[in-house]
Specification:
The chain has helices at 5-33, 166-176, 188-193, 197-211, and strands at residues 45-50, 52-53, 73-82, 98-108, 119-124, 137-145, 148-151, 157-160. It has 216 residues and is α+β, with helices and mostly antiparallel strands. It has a domain at 45-163: OB fold (Dihydrolipoamide Acetyltransferase, E2P) (Beta Barrel). A hairpin with a 2-residue loop joins strand 6 (137-145) and strand 7. The longest helix has 29 residues, at 5-33. It is globular and about 45 Å long. This is DKNYY family protein.
Length: 216
């Protein structure tokens, strides 16, 4: 019987080693499979992205336009500075400059004139009437105008409690399917709870009309 012990120990070691290898491979495969379009690896520079305020646009927020407009840049971050309002842009609008330290980036649209280049800081003067404070976390939706990144108003800066907020997850799902309106249908109640129900309904109506055009 004593001669069989090393054999048992040998097979036990093989089983444990094989199990460990299989678990490691499964974990590695699982981590790789979770990578999506909105999971961007950014090595930040200490530069600042200055973004123009398209104050004359009629809409601002996560969804604009009847059928939606493609995002130019989407990210989450922390507000680090808010300056006092000024009349520099009067009488067009009240200018109030703010700075956001970018933490996570979810969408970058390539633009020839001004594309996002891994800047750590975002600056714009669209912060007037925005109910936020230094230290707040926000989810930011930028678009593009004349081939440059732009932001159409304070509604495009959405306060969130943390970077795993449900609105962040819903935004990532929307981006992961190339901003197809059908993807936000499952999150319509969530967006409605935060005041974006009308915009979501509009996108869904557009989607329906596009798929089912009126016969002439």
């Amino acid at each position: 019987m004593s001669k069989q012990k090393p054999l048992r120990f040998f097979f036990s070691g093989v089983v444990h080693s094989t199990a460990y290898l299989l678990i490691s491979l499964c974990l590695l495969s699982s981590c790789q499979s979770k990578k999506t379009k909105s999971d961007l690896d950014i090595v930040f520079t200490q530069d600042t992205l200055n973004v123009g305020y398209t104050y004359w646009w009629e809409e601002s927020g996560p969804f604009i336009g009847y059928c939606g407009k493609e995002y130019g840049l989407v990210f989450s971050g922390i507000i680090t500075q808010i300056d006092s309002p000024t009349n520099e842009a009067a009488p067009l609008y009240i200018s109030q400059r703010g700075t956001i330290a970018i933490e996570k980036v979810y969408k970058i649209k390539p633009l020839e004139s001004q594309s996002y280049a891994n800047q750590k800081y975002f600056v714009s003067d669209c912060f007037n009437n925005l109910d936020v404070s230094v230290g707040d976390k926000v989810l930011v939706f930028c678009y593009d105008y004349e081939d440059q990144i732009s932001i159409p108003g304070p509604n495009s800066i959405v306060p969130i409690s943390d970077f795993d907020h449900p609105l962040v997850q819903a935004t990532k799902r929307y981006i992961d399917v190339d901003e197809d309106a059908a993807a936000i249908k499952r999150d319509s109640s969530l967006w409605s709870a935060y005041g974006y129900g009308e915009q979501v309904d509009q996108l869904l109506r557009c989607k329906e009309h596009t798929e089912n055009p009126i016969s002439k």
